[in-house]
């Protein structure tokens, strides 16, 4: 999975670099004395390109018409960190110390594969998308969570784990309001995106790796909430940006000790 993620990340970065290098078009005209180069600039909306009498620009005014869009996609590839918020604090309470985690290894990864939207103008659109995300909590304590237990139950042990990870996979459905500037001279624009996001649990598991027990993957019910909801914000330029997500309901269901424990994620987003 990591190789696939890195491959897509390299592809997006390479595509952004190619787009930058091919944005400006140059038109060449020839007379009997010399070759004269003329720059073509494209403006959007109400932008007006300045002209120079000695070096006139050919100016096109283009504004995308309103309309619907629908189709498969691979975009908003998010890779970042997850933090657990315990009743308003990022310090876990004593009862939740069983979830004590390694901050720089507790990750969030996701992307969208389907999108439907409506563009009101070149500067504003609304879209709903469908995709997947993974939350991976790297546990500090030696022990394991019991699968299919009545409540979230941690059993300590003396195993020296190289990896002890509690994970959940969700279908994510964001509804986004995308405010965009006009294209700049490089053909790129700034984005500010906000909106709600829903999630439906499709699986959870424990992954462990140790010298004593080898590799173990135990899928089952670890009481991750079956349905989650929250808010998302994104800020970006071109194809690269930052994201932040906060889920407003409990991270775990039917587990009173974890009441008020919520998820916050943030990091890098590629593809807009």
Helix-strand topology string? HEEEEEEEEEEEEEE
Helix content: under 10%
Number of structural domains: 2
First CA to last CA: what distance? Answer: 22 Å
Helix tally equals 1
- Rounded mean pLDDT is 84
Count of beta strands: 14
| Spatial shape | elongated
CATH fold-level label of the largest domain: Porin
Proportion in β-strands: over 45%
Q: Whole-number radius of gyration?
A: 24 Å
CATH class of the largest domain: Mainly Beta
Give the neighbour order of strands across the main sheet: 4-5-6-9-10-12-13-14
- Biggest sheet record: 8 strands, antiparallel, barrel
Walk me through the structure:
With 272 residues, the protein is mainly β. The protein folds into two domains: 8-62, no CATH class; 66-270, Porin (Beta Barrel). Helix content is 7%, strand content 56%. The protein has one helix at 2-21, and strands spanning 25-30, 35-44, 58-62, 67-86, 107-121, 124-138, 143-145, 154-156, 161-180, 190-210, 214-219, 227-237, 240-247, 261-270. It has an eight-stranded antiparallel beta barrel. Strands 1-2-3 form a three-stranded mixed sheet, with no helix packed on it. The chain has a two-stranded antiparallel ribbon with strand order 7-8. Residues 1-8 and 10-56 have low confidence and may be disordered.
């Amino acid at each position: 999975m990591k190789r696939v993620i890195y491959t897509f990340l390299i592809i997006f970065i390479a595509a952004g670099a190619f787009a930058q290098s091919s944005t400006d078009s140059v038109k060449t005209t020839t007379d009997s004395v010399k070759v004269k180069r003329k720059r073509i600039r494209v403006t959007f909306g109400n932008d007006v390109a300045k002209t120079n009498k000695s070096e006139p620009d050919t100016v096109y005014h283009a504004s995308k018409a309103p309309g619907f869009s629908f189709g498969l996609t691979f975009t908003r590839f998010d890779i970042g960190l997850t933090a657990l918020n315990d009743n308003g604090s990022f310090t876990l309470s004593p009862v939740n110390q069983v979830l004590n985690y390694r901050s720089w290894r507790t990750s969030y990864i996701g992307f969208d594969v389907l999108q439907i939207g409506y563009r009101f103008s070149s500067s504003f659109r609304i879209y709903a998308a469908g995709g997947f995300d993974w939350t991976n909590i790297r546990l500090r304590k030696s022990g394991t969570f019991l699968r299919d237990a009545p409540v979230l139950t941690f059993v300590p042990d003396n195993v020296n784990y190289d990896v002890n990870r509690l994970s959940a996979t969700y279908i994510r459905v964001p509804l986004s309001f995308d405010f965009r500037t006009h294209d700049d001279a490089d053909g790129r624009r700034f984005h500010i995106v906000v909106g709600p996001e829903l999630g439906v649990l499709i699986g959870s598991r424990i992954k462990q790796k140790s010298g004593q027990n080898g590799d173990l993957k135990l899928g089952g019910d670890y009481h991750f909430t079956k349905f989650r909801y929250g808010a998302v914000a994104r800020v970006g330029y071109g194809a690269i940006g930052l994201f932040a997500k906060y889920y407003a309901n409990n991270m775990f269901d039917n587990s009173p000790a974890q009441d008020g424990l919520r998820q916050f994620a943030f990091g890098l987003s590629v593809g807009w």
